[in-house]
Amino acid sequence: MDFQQLLRGAALRVTRPRVAVLSAVHTHPHADTDSIIGAVRRDLPEVSHQAVYNTLHALTAARLVRRIQPAGSVARYEARVGDNHHHIVCRSCGLIADVDCAVGEAPCLEASDDSGFSIDEAEVVFWGQCPACS
Amino acid sequence: MDFQQLLRGAALRVTRPRVAVLSAVHTHPHADTDSIIGAVRRDLPEVSHQAVYNTLHALTAARLVRRIQPAGSVARYEARVGDNHHHIVCRSCGLIADVDCAVGEAPCLEASDDSGFSIDEAEVVFWGQCPACS
DNA sequence: CGCCTAATCTTGACTGATTCCAGAATAGCG
DNA sequence: CGCTATTCTGGAATCAGTCAAGATTAGGCG
Known about the structure:
2 copies of one chain form a homodimer.
Chain A: H1 3-9, H2 16-27, E1 31-32, H3 33-43, H4 49-61, E2 66-68, E3 76-78, E4 86-90, E5 96-99, E6 118-129
Parallel strand pairs in A: 4-6
Antiparallel strand pairs in A: 1-3, 2-3, 4-5
Chain A binds a DNA duplex through helix 4.
């Protein structure tokens, strides 16, 4: 995966921290910011946490990563973008798994009554117990 | 609405803070903890924030209220329980509206592949712009 | 190739929601 | 009415995330 190319394609400057963050998100799907900082520092021990926060925001805005945040969790990031898939979260250990969207493009569901809102996305989170916890 | 009865029915002790919190959640759907503290203190100016946090947890565990927390938001609470409805959240102002679930009982959706999880709930959050913001 | 400037990064303080804790108050049983 | 476990108060602590100022650097331009 050519991360430099991905960054350039999104009109983002190529810096070591950014490449490392993008790489870490690809390597660790659903990781929280702290884990990403840890992963990045294995390559670049000097990166500040602020640089990682900045980068994650920039990458999210550029749609190179997606931010997910199940209720009660800190922010997590994944590199799988553009396919509108959903997630299963384990109530016990917090493990997150991907679920393909059976319906297709976002928004994949119609609201029964949209209260006048213009809807652009339907986010689905399944809750339950993972195999290890049940 | 007889809040004392609701509390007793859930085997919870009836205290002034609890009645006030339960009442506030009924009166202010989707309110965050701070708003609830404010509403409660209109009746009981001396209530500690900790009592409100404790009570909200107890009420949530007893299923007398439901906790919702769209990504990027603080915890919010609503008294509408047991009907598995969903929510629309405005990306601009954070306004939340209820959406009836078209499908029925929880979990109202099947995951295409559950990865071995046992699923008990499918939470749907629609994202868009509310009438005022669009 | 090297300069220049805006974008990015480092450092460190700060915020705000939530939790933790110890001691005082109280609901509700007997 | 008194007892005890539960709940409440007050205050400190935690933790993710943000803010801000000054140093560094990517990448366009000559």
